[in-house]
């Protein structure tokens, strides 16, 4: 069965496994398997349930024959099989239901062929030969696109960086149909999986504790699927259990993402810039999420300065999030003057949309369709894709950077922009 983040290599798989319900099919499959040079003992008694139990603890074969005669809900059982089947496995199903709608639904779910029982030896040989040809046929990967890695960094806690990271990943995977990985690096308090009503699993903590296990197969099994084109790797590590790492596991994960996905979105806590600066070495686009406040302006200046020095290859976008319709603490014009650049995207505050997203367990972008917030999220998507194209066009060119004015000078200028706040303090 074909998952969208299928690694390029198929690994060392058995060529064939079969799970059948009746003696006639069992005997016939053993004979035909031997003719094709496959081990007859790979033909097993038992149908779908036995197959799911077996494949949950062993590697999937190149070709899987599954008897669905005892299945009460074939489509639901196929979905259960897909959960334990490694990507790339070619599946042939057999059953006693002669229904063209079922046949079409099974093919749409990823099944290669469906044989009506009882089937003959020639029919079986043809189906297996075709499945073998499909497995070894060159994969049509479509137009080649360079992998895009986007880091989303909040200048302050609570500015909504995680909300925008999940929204961006959802838009890339759903609206643009790009296989996308979402990595939540807030190991103890991450909310990416929670925002999509998913259990985070142990994938990220396992990766940190055992970096040597990280490979294509680990990625397939450890990531939680949000949809056919979106997978999440996150954690809810116990707060009494610090996870010590030199960051090597994170770097290896990003390397595997490049092989298995078209896009990666990293929800990157700002403290990671201090602890693991190497994470930014291959980031194409950095989204700096801020609010229009004095504290956020100060930290925006510091983070933008750090990015200019330590990640010069990355295109930086500044997003002002949760902007209230009334007068913000600092006006957009003064904020832009203080950070010496434009705010690329402004996302308005909408309590109703945010509350609805939380209740439904959906991303902000998905819930906000048709609203101003939804339009702003789409603007963010277009800006990220445009910045990635510019970064790709500029790749290989020498970049030069000049030191700006001192941070303390910029921060001093900021304080003069909010006289009402200072006046209030004086009168108090």
In short:
With 428 residues, the chain is an alpha/beta fold. It has 18 helices and 13 strands. Helix content is 44%, strand content 16%.
Spell out the key features of this protein.
428 residues, alpha/beta, Rossmann fold, 18 helices, 13 strands, 16% strand, elongated, disordered C terminus
Number of DSSP helices?
A: 18
Q: How confident is the prediction overall: mean pLDDT?
A: 85
Which stretches are low in confidence, meaning pLDDT under 50 for 5 or more residues running? 2-11, 398-404, 421-428
The CATH class of the largest domain turns out to be Alpha Beta
What proportion strand? 15-25%
Number of strand segments: 13
The total domain count is: 2
Report strand order across the widest sheet.
8-9-7-10-6-11-12-13
Shape assignment: elongated
Helix content: 40-55%
Name of the CATH homologous superfamily of the largest domain? P-loop containing nucleotide triphosphate hydrolases
Q: What name does CATH use for the topology of the largest domain?
A: Rossmann fold
Summarize the main sheet: 8 strands, mixed
Helix and strand topology:
Blueprint: E1 16-20, H1 23-35, E2 43-45, H2 48-55, E3 63-67, H3 74-84, E4 90-95, H4 100-108, E5 113-116, H5 121-136, E6 148-154, H6 161-175, E7 180-184, H7 192-195, H8 203-209, H9 216-222, E8 224-227, E9 230-233, H10 248-260, E10 263-267, H11 271-275, E11 285-290, H12 294-310, E12 315-323, H13 332-339, E13 345-348, H14 351-360, H15 364-367, H16 372-394, H17 407-415, H18 419-427
Parallel strand pairs: 1-2, 1-3, 3-4, 4-5, 6-10, 6-11, 7-9, 7-10, 11-12, 12-13
Antiparallel strand pairs: 8-9
């Amino acid at each position: 069965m074909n998952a969208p983040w299928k690694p390029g290599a198929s690994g060392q798989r058995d060529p064939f496994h079969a799970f059948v319900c009746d003696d006639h099919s069992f005997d016939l499959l053993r004979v035909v398997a031997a003719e094709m040079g496959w081990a007859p003992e790979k033909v097993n008694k038992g149908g779908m349930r036995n197959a799911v139990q077996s494949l949950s603890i062993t590697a999937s074969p190149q070709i899987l024959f599954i008897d669905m005669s005892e299945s009460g809900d074939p489509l639901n059982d196929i979905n259960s099989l897909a959960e334990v089947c490694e990507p790339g496995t070619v599946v042939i199903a057999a059953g006693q239901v002669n229904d063209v709608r079922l046949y079409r639904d099974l093919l749409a779910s990823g099944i290669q062929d469906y044989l009506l029982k009882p089937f003959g030896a020639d029919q079986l040989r043809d189906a297996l030969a075709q499945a073998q040809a499909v497995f070894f046929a060159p994969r049509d990967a479509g137009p080649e696109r360079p992998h895009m890695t986007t880091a989303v960094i909040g200048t302050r806690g609570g500015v909504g960086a995680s909300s925008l990271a999940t929204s961006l990943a959802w838009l890339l995977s759903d609206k643009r149909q790009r296989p996308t990985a979402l990595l939540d690096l807030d190991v103890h308090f991450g909310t990416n999986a929670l925002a999509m009503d998913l259990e985070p699993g142990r994938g990220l903590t396992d990766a940190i504790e055992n970096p040597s296990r990280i490979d294509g197969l680990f990625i397939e099994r450890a990531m939680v699927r949000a949809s056919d084109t979106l997978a999440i790797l996150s954690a809810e590590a116990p707060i009494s259990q610090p996870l010590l790492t030199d960051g090597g596991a994170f770097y290896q994960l990003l390397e595997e993402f490049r092989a298995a996905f078209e896009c990666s979105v990293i929800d990157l806590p700002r403290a990671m810039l201090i602890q693991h600066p190497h994470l930014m070495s291959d980031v194409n686009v950095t989204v700096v999420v801020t609010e229009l406040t004095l504290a956020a302006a100060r930290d925006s200046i510091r983070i933008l300065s750090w990015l200019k020095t330590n990640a010069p290859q990355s295109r930086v976008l500044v997003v002002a999030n949760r902007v209230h319709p009334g007068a913000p603490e600092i006006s957009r014009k003064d904020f832009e003057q203080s950070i010496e650049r434009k705010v690329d995207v402004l996302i308005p505050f909408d309590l109703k949309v945010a509350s609805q997203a939380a209740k439904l367990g959906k991303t902000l972008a998905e819930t906000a369709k048709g609203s101003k917030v939804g339009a702003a999220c789409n603007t963010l998507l277009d800006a990220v894709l445009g910045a990635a194209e510019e970064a790709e066009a500029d790749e290989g060119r020498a970049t030069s950077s000049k030191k700006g004015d001192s941070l303390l000078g910029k921060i001093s200028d900021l304080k003069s922009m909010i006289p009402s706040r200072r006046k209030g303090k004086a009168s108090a």
